[in-house]
Write a structure and sequence with these properties.
This protein is α+β, with helices and mostly antiparallel strands and 93 residues long. It has helices at residues 2-6, 80-91, and strands spanning 11-15, 19-23, 25-32, 35-40, 43-58, 63-76.
Length: 93
């Protein structure tokens, strides 16, 4: 129920494609230096880039910070569990 109240709090701040802060994060699906998959109050967010480093991770407050070369930000209306089911279906076809 809290997630609905947080929806208005979803915010991205991107500075020079090198520093990103995000509010309204509810879960981290996966992370590596080229890709970060997050569940936010506004949907699933896929961040692609190079040399991505988490500088802040506080899921209680719904905040994430990262640095690196940020190349793409893509939203999806799927949840992380729906997204992983689709991926598993492709793997086992």
């Amino acid at each position: 129920m809290e997630q609905k109240g947080l929806k208005n709090n979803h915010q991205l701040t991107l500075v020079h494609r090198e520093k990103l802060t995000i509010d309204g994060v509810t879960n981290v699906g996966s992370y590596d230096p080229t890709e970060l998959l997050l569940e936010t109050t506004a949907g699933v967010l896929l961040i692609k880039g190079e040399n991505l480093h988490l500088t802040l991770l506080n899921l209680e407050q719904g905040k994430i910070g990262l640095t690196g070369e940020i190349n793409a930000l893509t939203y999806s209306n799927e949840t992380l569990s729906q997204r992983s089911k689709g991926l598993l279906g492709k793997i086992f076809k």
